[in-house]
Structure formats: structure tokens, C-alpha cells
Amino acid sequence: MKSVVAEIQTEQQPPQVKVAALVQKGRYDPIAPICYVSGCIVALFIWWLASQSAASPLHRFNPQDTAVALTALFVNARFWQGLAESMQRLAIGLSLAFVVGVPIGFAIGYSTRAGQLTYVPFQFLRMISPLSWTPVAIILLGIGSGPVCFLIAISAIWPIIINSAAGIRAADPQWLEVARCLGAGHRQIIRHILIRATLPHILIGLQLALGVAWIVLVPAEMLGVASGLGYMILDFRDVNDYASITALIIVIGMLGLCLDLPLRFLSRKIKY
Amino acid sequence: MRRLSANNIEKYFLQEQQRMSALGPLDLEISPGEFICILGESGCGKSTFLRILAGLEIPTAGNVSMDDRPITGPDYRRAVVFQNPALLPWLTVQENISLGFKIRGERVPKDLVQQTIQLVGIDGFEKAKPKTLSGGMAQRAAIARALVSNPDVLLMDEPFGALDALTRMRMQEALIDIWNRHRVTIVFITHDIDEALVLASRIVVMTPRPGKIARVFDVSQKRSRARSDAEFLKMRACIADELVQSFKESREFEWGRMA
Ligand SMILES: Nc1ncnc2c1ncn2[C@@H]1O[C@H](COP(=O)(O)OP(=O)(O)OP(=O)(O)O)[C@@H](O)[C@H]1O
Ligand SMILES: [Mg+2]
Description:
The complex is a heterodimer of chains A (272) and B (259). Chain A is mainly α. Chain A is 80% helix and 0% strand.
């Protein structure tokens, strides 16, 4: 306990005031929705413009064909099955990263020694591209969903560890003193103070983890499984169905966006 | 009612790799049910002493005990009001005040919580988040958090510092009332001589660097707490003299050392 407190005291930083936050805080901004929508329209227009000429390399990936392929995709049972499978792998990988990562992050934030012990190995592991584990994962876990979940977990665990540790360090040492004076031991401090105090940081970690996990999911499914969104992209390539590839890419992007939204919302609610 | 005693305690802090003596050697016996006020200039070690009594800080030398049992860590029967409110920002005022019961796994006595909120005069803000409170209101919530557990010892570090004169007097009355009814042992740090005179049964004046006791004034026999009372004024002048004296001595000591 003592060591955290000492460390926190030396690492306390002045609060940063963001000018943008000050300007917009709590004020209704009627222009914002217009900006969000126009941004999308402009992006679509650029895509359309760039793919219209028959000479354009993007011609085969034009929005009109993509829209048609998209509607076909939505009535394709295999697509929904693949999607479900991808989501399942994502959920398993992320849960694994969360369950292992948060306690490790807490330990690192709580004890200086744990931080020192894990620093070099973790920095080393963190810098390895998750996909380079593929052969190892396949040898260890066999062909199937196992390696994909593993790759997701190993890429998602680092932001979770780092942010959980940062959350513990950001907890005001006085909150701990208050709790101790009210009769709290280590367990109560963790339960009543540290978990709640670090929740916003953990959510940020989860948001970042989801980002990398979603990015890693697709290439991971291109290596060694026969289902899921990543596999379907390869499948469509083999039959030269460019419009469906583009449609899948759009779906993947949209899903990533949608997955981030609830976390962002929760993040805002839970901030203190 | 609990007896607190500090025997020959000293506290050193490491500042820029140097051992700096912040407190002591200091001896103080606090009888059960006493109301001690500690006066002394800023930085003379008052908070450090209080934190040692709370068990938040371990003295470098000497020992502190409550009822002859050494104080080795915090104890909820010794409630602490810190120099700043230190409310948990994610809890409402009410939840902050009930926190002790939750932590100890006790049932939250809702009526008592509400009474305490009314006692410190922040009713109407039960559901407010600390961020939306004024400094004085936050401090009163922190006082309520300490009072609500019915502690045997109250350790208060400039608790009324952020309050306006009127609220301050009201809070002083409330505190005297609590002290009279429950005979809590109170250690109360203040910068205000008048406040010390109104509240205390004993006033301890400290000198800085390192913090030592300069003089102890017994004011338990004072007949009246009226601020215009002759005896009150005499005592006031005496304490002011002592403060000025200790201030001068500490400065002369420093200047002498520099020369
Ligand atoms: N954690 C710490 N590390 C190093 N030095 C400290 C620490 N806490 C207190 N000190 C030093 O101990 C001395 C006494 O501090 P303390 O907070 O007890 O003073 P105080 O009498 O409460 O002052 P104030 O009236 O301004 O609150 C100061 O010189 C301070 O610099
Ligand atoms: Mg102080």
C-alpha cells in the first residue's frame, strides 16, 4: 500500500485543460450533426468520382456495384453465419484479454516491483506484430477458431494492461486514505475505490483493445480458418467478385464503428 | 471516550535526498473526552501530527497509542476530517457520507445519514455530485462523513477553514453540542485563535521546524465562551503573544544559523 501512495505522489501531473473541451462543454451544437453527415456524403462522393472512369483502377470497386452486392450479402445465409462466427471469436478473444489483462494491469499499477519485473518482457512482447504469432498459434492450438481468438487476445491485452495500470496510478492517494480511515483493508480499497476509480481508464483500454482486435480479426481469419469475414474476403477474391469484396469491407468498417459507439457512450456516462 | 498519547514522537521526511525533521520530539497526553485545539504557523507540522494520531503516518521515533494500545494504522473509531474535503467524485453527497458503512459491510442507517446531512446544513444536496458543490459545502459533507459513524475520536484538520463566518459559528456550536452529548475526544487544528478559544478545553501552541509544543493553555475552566468576555480577551492576548514569540524564535534561529 505504502509503495503505491509514494509512487503516486511523485507521479502526480498537473491536470491538462483542453481548450476544445472548454469551448464545447455542455453546449448544444446544432452544426455538429450537419458536419457529421456532410463528411460522409463528401467521402462517398469522392469514392464515386474516383471510380467512374473505366480507366480508373478503382472502377471495379465502384459504389453502385457495391450497393447491389451489399443487398445480396444481406440475404446470404453464409454471410450471416460468417459474421456470427467472427463476432464470437472477437468476443472470446476480447474477454480473454480483459480477464487476464485487468488483474495484471492492477498489479502493475499497485506495486512498483510488479511494474519493474514485467516492464522489459511486456514491452518486448507488445512490439511483436500479433500476426507473427500465427504459426505458433496454429501449432499450439490447431486449425480453427482457437488461433484467431488467441491472436485477438494477444493484440488486445496490451492496451488493457497499460490503461488499467494507468488507472490505478491516477487514483488520488487521498481517496485511499479516506477509505482506510473509514475502516477499509486492501480488499475493500480495491472494491470500493480502485475498481470504480479505474473504470474510466479500463473502458478507454477496452475501446483501444476493441480497435486493434477488430483490425487483427480480419487478417487472422485469412490464415488458417474456413469461415468468418476475413475468410469470406479471400473467398470472393478467388471468384473475382470485386463488388462483394468491397461490400464486405464496408460492412467491416461499419461494424467497427458500431462496436465503438456503445463503449464511447458508456465511457462518457462513467466518467467522474 | 478514548485516551490518546504521543510519547516522544519525531517525524522525518526525505526532501531532496535530505532528512528533514518535521516534527518533534513531542509529548502529548490527551485525556478521554478532551477537546484539544492545535495552533501554529503554516508548515509547523500540525497536519503531520494529526496524521500520526490517525495512523496514516508512522512516526520515525517514539510511539503513539490509543488507550495504551499502539496505533499502527487507521481505525474507523478515529474519524478524520482532512484539510481538503477529499470526497469521492463518482459518488453523490449521500453516498459519500454513507461510504464508511458500505466499506465495513454494515447496514446504512438512512435516518442517521439524513440527520447528519441536516446537521451540517447541506440538505437538499443529497443527490448532488461533489463537483457541483461549493468548497464550504464539500467540506461540510466531509465533516458529515466523519461524524456519521459516531467515532470515539475526531481528528479534524482545519475543518472550518473554507466556511463563511456565520456557517462557521453554526458549525462550531454543532460541534460543541456533539462533544457535550457524546464526549468524543477531539483534536482540532485551526489557524484561528478565537475559534480555538471557543471550542477547546486545552489549546496547544506549536513552534515550527521541527514542530514542537511551545505551550499548552488550559481553558477548560473558562466560564463563558462569549467573545467579549474579559477573561476570553486576556487569554486571547496571551496565546497571540505565544504565537508571535514562537514565530520570532524560529526565525531568529534560522537567521542565526545562516549568519
Ligand atoms: N509527505 C511529505 N514529504 C515531505 N515533506 C513533508 C511531507 N508532509 C509534510 N512535509 C513537511 O513537513 C512540514 C510540516 O507539514 P504539515 O503539513 O504538517 O504542516 P501544517 O502545520 O499542517 O501546515 P498548514 O497549516 O499549512 O497546513 C512541512 O515543512 C512540510 O514541508
Ligand atoms: Mg496542515
